[in-house]
Amino acid sequence: MLAKRIIPCLDIRDGVTVKGINFVNIREVGDPVELGASYAEQGADELVFLDITASHEGRKTFVKLVKRIAENLNIPFTVGGGISELSDIEALLAAGADKVSINSAALKNPDLIDQMALNFGSQFVVVAIDALEKEGSWTPYINGGRIPTDKELFSWTKEAQNRGAGEILFTSMNHDGTKNGFACEALARLSENLSIPVIASGGAGNMEHYAEVFTKGKADAGLAASIFHFNEISVPQLKEYLMKKNIPVRL
């Protein structure tokens, strides 16, 4: 079994790391460059930086910030937010990002996934999906969880994979920021349906939740924000716990 990845996520608004609950009630956490460097030192496998208001406000992710992050990191990191065309992706990769995440842009223009994979390679393409579950059906949303689409989670992830996505980053809007655990049932179904890695996001509250998402949820990686930002769990502490549970991680 491949080692499971621990990925702190830094949601960025106006150049500052923030965190909310169910995509609202946002509060500031700190400087993304300093936080990112700290997580790298702790042993995080990767980082994700998301400009959470870029799509909604119709502007681009700050390339200058990505350059600063790259200068201070020695682990892979993914950047997303406000990306709508190949020139955006080219600029972010040139600034030092290892992978680029698209969410709203992919749902509005699915051909962008094909173009990204063709021009840069699937290994650089992360398709992120913010989905809300109602009455047993999962609906992807765009613009930072503000607008529902006519897509359905499982068919959309399959389409994204077929178009060239290298990874799926699935965030359950029902679980986001609640610290009540990941959406393991949906994650297991995604992992069974897809041949590319699935990153779980939304709901991490303790170390048991991580063990559950890697076993019951069958996720390849677990992403979280609050538990790391507010020092509730450290990355080394989490990895030691998972090792004791016979879940493979990189120490």
Compile the SSE list and pairings.
Blueprint (H helix, E strand, L loop, with lengths): L4 E9 L2 E6 L2 E7 L1 H11 L4 E5 L2 H4 L5 H9 L5 E4 L5 H10 L3 E4 L1 H5 L2 H10 L4 E10 L2 E6 L4 E2 L4 H11 L3 E6 L11 H10 L4 E4 L5 H9 L5 E4 L1 H4 L5 H10 L7
Parallel strand pairs: 1-4, 1-12, 4-5, 5-6, 6-7, 7-10, 10-11, 11-12
Antiparallel strand pairs: 1-2, 2-3, 7-8, 8-9
Structure in words:
With 251 residues, the chain is of the alpha/beta class. It has a single domain, classed as Aldolase class I (TIM Barrel, Alpha-Beta Barrel). It has helices spanning 32-42, 54-57, 63-71, 86-95, 104-108, 111-120, 153-163, 184-193, 207-215, 226-229, 235-244; strands at 5-13, 16-21, 24-30, 47-51, 77-80, 99-102, 125-134, 137-142, 147-148, 167-172, 198-201, 221-224. An eight-stranded parallel β-barrel has the order 1-4-5-6-7-10-11-12, surrounded by six helices. It is globular. The mean pLDDT is 91.
CATH class categorisation = Alpha Beta
Number of separate strands: 12
Number of helices: 11
Order of helix and strand elements from N to C terminus: EEEHEHHEHEHHEEEHEHEHEHH
Report the sheet with the most strands, covering strand number, pairing sense and barrel closure. Answer: 8 strands, parallel, barrel
Looking at the overall shape, the CATH architecture is: Alpha-Beta Barrel
Give the tally of structural domains.
Answer: 1
Strand order of the largest sheet: 1-4-5-6-7-10-11-12
- Alpha carbon gyration radius: 16 Å
Q: Stretches where pLDDT falls below 50 for ≥5 residues? A: none
